[in-house]
């Protein structure tokens, strides 16, 4: 019993001596100071690198052999993400070395672990490879309006693993790159605004066509999104109670919806001012009365 009490007393004395020893606190303070310096330097390196990459992309846009703005933005964000991952990994290794861990066994273990993860996480590898080819082939970029499967919206971010698409109602869809098999990009080429105007059968067709042509030309001249003169294609179809005249306007990418809405509103006003009747549902009642015989 006395021996156990003596051992406990010795252990307690060693613990007290350790924590009351000034060299212990000096060593602890030095390690903490080095860790703080490593984290601060890592943060500074990341910020400086991001600014350098952004400046490089801006200079690239002013170069005669420049990338498109959307591709420059996409590549810039990707490079920034890669730099952040590398710097943070190096900072983590340096912090572990300050805590007394040997770096070489950790790196060797990380290599073996990475190989095992590569075999086990095939979907992750597929996501990374697909993300690389999306960026390399410039299939779409940040700011493009795309449709991936059932999701349509603006590309917010393209990473090596996931792509973020923001819907027009505000939802953000995070899609693994490996699951992207088909993409429809609405932001590469000009779009076509198609407007169908319904005119009553009783209306003067020549007056209606002339009014539509003049109004469409006036609207497109005031719209910066319209890149060509509008085309009045003529009578598209004959409905049950209306004649449908089709108008097309070539617009900048993904602006045809706004131009079409503006054109619809102005055409309605112009047709009403010219007295061209716009059809609406009608019901005709026919009353038949049999001849009365005397």
Automatic annotation (TrEMBL):
Residues 194-278 form the Mechanosensitive ion channel MscS C-terminal domain. Pfam families: MS_channel_1st (PF21088), MS_channel_2nd (PF00924), MS_channel_3rd (PF21082). Gene3D superfamilies: 1.10.287.1260, 2.30.30.60, 3.30.70.100. Residues 123-187 form the Mechanosensitive ion channel MscS domain. The keyword Ubl conjugation does not apply. It is found in: Cell membrane. It is a multi-pass membrane protein. It comes from the Bacteria. InterPro entries: LSM_dom_sf, MS_channel_1st, MS_channel_C, MscS_beta-dom_sf, MscS_channel_2nd, MscS_channel_C_sf, MscS_channel_TM-2, YbiO_bact. Residues 81-122 form the Mechanosensitive ion channel transmembrane helices 2/3 domain. The chain crosses the membrane at residues 25-46, 78-97, 103-125. Keywords: Cell membrane, Membrane, Transmembrane, Transmembrane helix. Belongs to the MscS (TC 1.A.23) family. This is Mechanosensitive ion channel family protein.
């Amino acid at each position: 019993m006395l021996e156990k009490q003596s051992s406990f007393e010795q252990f307690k004395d060693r613990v007290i001596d350790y924590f009351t020893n000034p060299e212990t606190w000096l060593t602890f303070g030095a390690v903490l100071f080095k860790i703080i310096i490593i984290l601060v330097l890592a943060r500074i390196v990341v910020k400086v690198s991001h600014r350098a990459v952004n400046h490089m992309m801006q200079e690239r846009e002013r170069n005669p052999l420049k990338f498109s703005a959307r591709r420059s933005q996409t590549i810039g964000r990707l490079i920034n993400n890669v730099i952040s991952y590398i710097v943070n990994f190096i900072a983590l290794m340096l912090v572990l070395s300050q805590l007394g861990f040997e770096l070489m066994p950790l790196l060797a273990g990380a290599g073996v672990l990475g190989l095992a993860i590569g075999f086990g996480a095939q979907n992750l590898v597929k996501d990374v490879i697909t993300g690389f080819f999306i960026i390399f082939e410039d299939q779409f970029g940040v700011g493009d309006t795309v449709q991936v499967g059932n999701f349509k919206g603006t590309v917010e971010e393209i990473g090596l693993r996931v792509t973020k698409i923001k819907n027009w109602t505000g939802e953000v869809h995070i899609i693994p790159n490996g699951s992207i098999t088909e993409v429809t990009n609405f932001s590469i080429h000009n779009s076509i605004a198609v407007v169908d105007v319904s005119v009553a059968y009783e209306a003067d067709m020549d007056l209606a066509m002339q009014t539509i042509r003049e109004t469409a030309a006036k609207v497109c001249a005031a719209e910066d999104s319209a890149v060509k003169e509008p085309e009045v294609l003529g009578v598209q179809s004959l409905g049950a109670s209306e004649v449908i005249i089709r108008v097309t306007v070539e617009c900048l990418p993904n602006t045809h919806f706004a131009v079409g809405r503006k054109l619809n509103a102005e055409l309605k006003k112009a047709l009403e001012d010219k007295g061209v009747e716009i059809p609406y549902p009608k019901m005709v009642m026919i009353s038949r009365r049999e001849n009365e015989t005397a």
